[in-house]
């Protein structure tokens, strides 16, 4: 008996397990990344059928999207690009699904020139693809996007991460549901940059526990047409393809004598580029060193699926445990910082939980885009281990940094006394009611005592004059500006002080400008008016209690710290 097609009730359960933590917004739209291949075609069909059936049953109590849109990316990188694009559009039309084709305009900023042989085509194409998909979500009003990644893809992803030296957390593979994040870019408007909008949009993968053969069976059952990307079967092109080829050959040869099967596999994979063959060797070594499960690369796909499932489940358990410890260890903290009680840290014994705990804190206070590797200190093992060793073993150690744009400082916390931070804590005996703690905060770009006079980068000294003037001329009600990838500064243009209105009307003639700059050692935002040869005039500033002081003016500015302590 062959593999069984995916049942609709079964898919409903898969889909609901991908629901964002706070549910879907009312009347939201979900996008599907549609390549025209079997995986995305199957997903689009099942999702369209599910949402149609649920609407017909008037399931008003269910928190589900109400409509679906198909998003297809035409990379224009291979001969089959046009046929795949045409198939994806035809499938969406046949299913009665809204469809949008997204072409990558190679050579037009922020996109690079079209990649050619010898360049990292897979990485370049991926960054461009995700950039246009997010743009498609914004243009169509989609709150989330679903991808057709399945259980076989999950195994490949786990192995690829092992090749890059990941921890067991990374070997757990892709999450069923995660925030998009602020993007991979570091410059507003650059490739991969999405800013604060990415914190409210989600990526989901409902088919992540389904084998490829069941997806093909579903397509056959419902007579769904699709195309296969020929480059997926060329092991010399990418590491993922080489892994896929290796696993396919081993699966096909599982009934042969082991030595014969191994010879066939090695023969088929001979002649690969050195960086790919080297990565395959790294995978074998890393897989053998896993502590949580046994991952035998010669044991076949069934064994690998089980191993990766164990690692994925372990990742979810670690996330929940870190959330529990953060709630117990976090003390009242100044805005944008996190103060952690030292005496409770030893309760976290598991090294993997310690690692995930530190990464979560770093992501929360870093000035790098939320969700990016840079916010995690690029996950450099030696740096993260240095943080762990210091926090868990050294009460009152000196301040230090170890990547991610995060400063770690010793602190002495008391509910009744002023918070002491940094050198004030060294060698000090605790008084009654005091406790040792660690404060994580943004790493200063320059020392605090020269902050007002130093020349800062455009990311920290942000000229918003033109944006304010344009928004006012259009009659907009408000303007939002992301500052330092940490604060969302909102301007209510109906309440803007008259002195600023007058200055903005003539800014091109007078040269005055309105800026957002950092103040205090925590780099909180303040809004200033700058005139040549005059000191800056401050119009709004964030203060200790998290409120905004507008210096006697109406509350025309709000400042919200938007980074999250969530696992995803």
Structure description:
It comes from Suillus subaureus. It is an enzyme of class 6 (ligase). InterPro entries: Rossmann-like_a/b/a_fold, TilS/TtcA_N, tRNA_Ile_lys_synt, tRNA_Ile_lys_synt_N. Keywords: ATP-binding, Ligase, Nucleotide-binding, tRNA processing. Strand 16 (513-519) and strand 17 form a beta hairpin. This protein has 15 helices and 20 strands. It has helices at residues 8-16, 38-56, 81-95, 121-140, 151-163, 212-221, 239-252, 258-268, 274-288, 301-329, 351-365, 381-393, 465-474, 498-505, 507-510; strands spanning 29-33, 67-74, 98-103, 142-146, 177-179, 202-204, 330-331, 338-341, 400-401, 406-414, 420-421, 434-442, 462-463, 478-483, 487-492, 513-519, 524-530, 537-542, 548-549, 557-561. 36% of the residues lie in helices and 17% in strands. Residues 256-261 have low confidence and may be disordered. Helix 2 (38-56) packs parallel to helix 3 (81-95) and helix 10 (301-329) packs across helix 11 (351-365).
């Amino acid at each position: 008996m062959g593999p069984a097609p995916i049942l609709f009730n079964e898919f409903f359960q898969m889909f609901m397990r991908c629901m964002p933590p706070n549910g879907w917004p009312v009347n939201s739209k979900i996008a599907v990344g549609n390549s025209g291949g079997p995986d995305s075609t199957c997903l689009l069909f099942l999702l369209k059928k599910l949402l149609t059936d649920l609407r017909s049953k008037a399931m008003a109590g269910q928190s589900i999207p109400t409509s679906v849109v198909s998003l297809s990316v035409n990379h224009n990188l291979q001969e089959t690009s046009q046929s795949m694009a045409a198939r994806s559009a035809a499938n969406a039309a046949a299913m009665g699904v809204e469809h949008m084709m997204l072409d990558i305009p190679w050579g037009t900023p922020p996109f690079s020139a079209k990649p050619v042989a010898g360049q990292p085509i897979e990485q370049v194409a991926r960054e461009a693809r995700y950039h246009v998909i997010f743009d498609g979500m914004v243009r169509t009003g989609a709150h989330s996007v679903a991808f057709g990644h399945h259980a076989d893809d999950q195994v490949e992803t786990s192995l690829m991460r092992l090749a890059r030296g990941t921890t067991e957390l990374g070997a757990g593979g892709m999450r069923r549901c995660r925030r998009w994040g602020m993007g991979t870019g570091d410059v507003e408007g650059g490739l991969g940059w999405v800013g604060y909008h990415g914190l409210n949009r989600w990526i989901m993968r409902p088919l992540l526990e389904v084998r490829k053969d069941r997806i093909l069976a579903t397509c056959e059952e419902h007579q769904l047409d699709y195309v296969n990307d020929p480059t997926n079967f060329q092991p010399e092109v990418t590491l993922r393809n080489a892994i896929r080829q290796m696993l396919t050959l081993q699966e096909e040869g599982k009934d042969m004598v082991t030595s014969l099967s191994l010879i066939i596999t090695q023969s088929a994979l001979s002649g690969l580029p050195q960086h790919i063959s080297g990565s395959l060797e790294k995978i074998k070594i890393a897989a053998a060193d896993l502590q949580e499960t046994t991952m035998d690369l010669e044991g076949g796909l069934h064994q690998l699926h089980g191993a990766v499932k164990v690692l994925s489940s372990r990742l979810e358990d670690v996330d929940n445990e870190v959330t529990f410890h953060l709630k117990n260890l976090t003390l009242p903290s100044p805005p944008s910082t996190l103060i952690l009680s030292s005496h409770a840290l030893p309760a976290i014994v598991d090294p993997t939980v310690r690692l995930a705990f530190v990464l979560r804190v770093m992501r929360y206070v870093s000035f790098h885009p939320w969700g990016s590797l840079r916010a995690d200190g690029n996950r450099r093992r030696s740096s993260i281990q240095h943080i762990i060793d210091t926090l868990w073993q050294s009460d009152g150690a000196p301040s230090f940094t170890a990547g991610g744009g995060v400063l770690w400082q010793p602190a002495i916390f008391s509910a009744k006394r002023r918070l002491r931070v940094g050198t004030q804590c060294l060698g000090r005996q605790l008084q009654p009611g005091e406790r040792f703690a660690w404060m994580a905060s943004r790493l200063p770009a320059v020392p605090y005592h020269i902050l007002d006079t130093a020349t800062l980068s455009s990311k920290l000294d942000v000229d918003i004059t033109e944006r304010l003037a344009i928004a006012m001329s259009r009659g907009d009600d408000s303007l939002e500006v992301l500052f330092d990838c940490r604060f969302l500064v909102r301007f209510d243009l109906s309440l803007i002080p008259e002195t600023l209105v007058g200055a903005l009307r003539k800014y091109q003639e007078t040269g005055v400008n309105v800026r957002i700059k950092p103040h205090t050692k925590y780099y909180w935002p303040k809004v200033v008016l700058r005139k040549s040869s005059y000191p800056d005039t401050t119009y709004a500033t964030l203060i200790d209690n998290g409120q905004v002081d507008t210096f006697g003016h109406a509350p025309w500015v709000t400042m919200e710290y938007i980074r999250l302590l969530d696992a995803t």
